[in-house]
Every structure is written in structure tokens, then in C-alpha cells.
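pasting for ref
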Amino acid sequence: MRMVDLIDRKRRGGALDGMEIRQMIQGFCEGTIPDYQMSAFLMAVVFQGMTKEETSALTEAMADSGDIMDLSSVHGVKIDKHSSGGVGDKISLVLGPLVSAAGIPVAKMSGRGLGFTGGTIDKLESIPGFRTQLTQEEFLHNVNTIGIALAGQTGRLAPADKKLYALRDVTATVESLPLIASSIMSKKLAAGCDGIVLDVKAGSGAFMKTVDGARQLAMEMVSIGKSAGKAMTAVISDMSQPLGYAIGNRLEVVEAIEVLQGKGPKDVRQLTLRLGAYMLVLGRGAATPEEGEAILEELLDSGKGMEQFERFVRAQGGDLSRIGDTVMESKEVTLKPGVVQAMDTERIGAAAMCLGAGRKTKDDPIEYGAGLRIHKKIGDRLAEGEAAAILYYSHGADVEAAENLVRQAYHMGEAPVSPPPLIHDIIA
């Protein structure tokens, strides 16, 4: 196999077979295929695309490039959940404990936030003492004894994806549906679960800006998962405005706790129940999504979901009694009165970054208590002198930039507007 021949074939719109793709990924990881040749191949994929068979082969080769999590010692059907990322997305903090309280084991590997979207690991690490780096023995022990463990991804989980993504990031080859789908799914396959529920976001605060684009990505990932023998469901959910009202690591943990206590924003509760219902169906804990949703509602309202969250946090060293220890400075943002017509949600996420809640590179430090709480969303009326949002920050934050971004994010008018639907589509 000569790499130049594979590049040429793909450039002309031809297809590679599974063995050629596997050898290509292996050679790239071992260093026998140089960056410049892989960059040429990636650009050919951007222009010519890949067949479903090629995409599945690429995903499985990337997954097999490192460790595959062995969950065979975990009792029951293991179901994972993945979100394509958004602003204020704290669903995993509520969903994991709730689904595990329903008897479905949750063995989840998550990542850190990068850019304007937050990461579940950063949110959990904002809880004083919480450990996200677990040995495999600790991870499996927690899943088998309390039903849930959530840890950071190891460097040996799909290392080909990390190497490829670094190259895509500097060669303008990020925006390719097969490459995006294979990047996400390679890590999910390596995590070893039996089924996956995908939460694919659509809107101004998501990577996919349109519902059609999100649907195409979801269908691509569902196809990959089914090809690998996984049970799959995808939910297309809205990200044209933040999810909930809190944006920022510790602020989102507090809001997640409110939802687990039977309070909190309705949209966070609704999306949690819908995603969890499909996790129960795939995990054989419910016959229908409606039955699954009823089971989870009872666990939320009875307080059993919150009890499981507390058990989970204690098992990984966290101390919820200290969640309010950090004292931040704050500032209100006011706008002209009117009705919120639309929101540029990405600007809200960028404002949180300016305050210290996000990072531009994976090595940047973050301020766990920083962020903002919005008070108004699409369709809400803002009165004269009423705050649209409140910023939380410490010394060194670019508060002026954050305030300007929030002002730019809100599009005000006088016409009544209905809020967008939370769920756009289900692909099951």
C-alpha cells in the first residue's frame, strides 16, 4: 500500500476498503505516514466525502488504535450518552445519577471543555475534592457497587483521534461530516458500552447551526454505531438559546442539584427525562420511552435521584457541603426593554470564557466559580431597568468584553415570540 495512491484515489472520488483504512491509521500513529500526506488525504475527504462503509471502517480503526474499555465485569446492559456540546449543557450531571438510580449501570468517560462549550469533567472538578482520574479498578468497582462512575478520558483512549484532530485543526479540515462523526464515535466505541444515546445540538450555540445539519450528523453517527453492533438512538435538541439559566462550571453544578431536588429549569428537566427514557429503553429497563420517562420522574420527585448524586459524589471524593465556598464578584447587565426575539448563544458562551469559565487551549486554567446567570430567554419580556443577566468573576477577568458579548447576544424587539421547541427530532 502506497499512501500516495490512496490520496489519489480519494481525490478522484474513489473509495478505500477497510484494510487500507486500518493500515493507513496504523501507519499514521506509528509515524511511517507523515503529517503532510495525512493532511492531503483529509483535504480529499473534505471535498469528496466518504461512503458509510469507509466512515465505519475509519471509526473502528481509530477506536482500535488504543485501549478498549473492558466493561464485561459490569452487570447489566451498559448505555452511554454523548452530547455534541452546547452552552449551559449540564444534562450529564443530572442524567447519570438518575439513570443509575433506575438500575441501568452508567460507566461514562467524558472530556474537558474547549472553546465556548463546557465540559462535564470541568464541572465535576468544580466540586471540592472530586476526583475524575480513577484507576480502572476504582472505575469498575464504583459502577458495580453504586451503579455509576464518571471519569476523564485517558490518553490511551482512541489516540488516533487526538493525533488526527490536531492535524485537522491546523489544516482547515475540521468541518467534514464523516470526520466529525468518526472522531466522536471512535471514543464512544472505545469506551466499551453496549448502546449509546446521542444528544445532537442544533442552533447558534452548537457546532451544527441548523437542524438539518444536526440531523445529518446524528444519522451518520447512528449508522456507525449500528455497524459496530451498538444499540443507538439520537435526539436532536435545541441550542438556539442556553440550556437552563446557569453558564459556568460551579454555577451549573448548583443548577443541576436544583433539578435533582425537583426544582430548577423546566428545559433541563425535560431534556434529562427524554434522554434518560431512551437510555432505559436501550438498557432494557423500560419497554417504551413513555414508561422510561415515568420511572425517571418518580425518581426525581421522590428525591432518590438526588440521593444517588450524593452517593456518586462521595464515592469520587467530592464534598458538596463546600460547593458555595468560592465568593465571586458580580455585575448586572441591563438592556433596553422589550421582548427577546432571538439569542446568539455562542456569544453567551464566549462571555463565560472572558469571565474565566472556559479555555482556548486544553492547558489553559479555568476559574471554577466564574460564569453568568441569564434571567431572560427567547419570548420573555425585559422591563425597564431589569437585569438580563448577572456576571460572576474574579480578579483578572475581562468583564467589559463579557458584558459587551452579552449585550450583542440579545436581539430585542416588541413583537411577541414563541420560544423554540426543545426537541426537534428523534432518530431511533
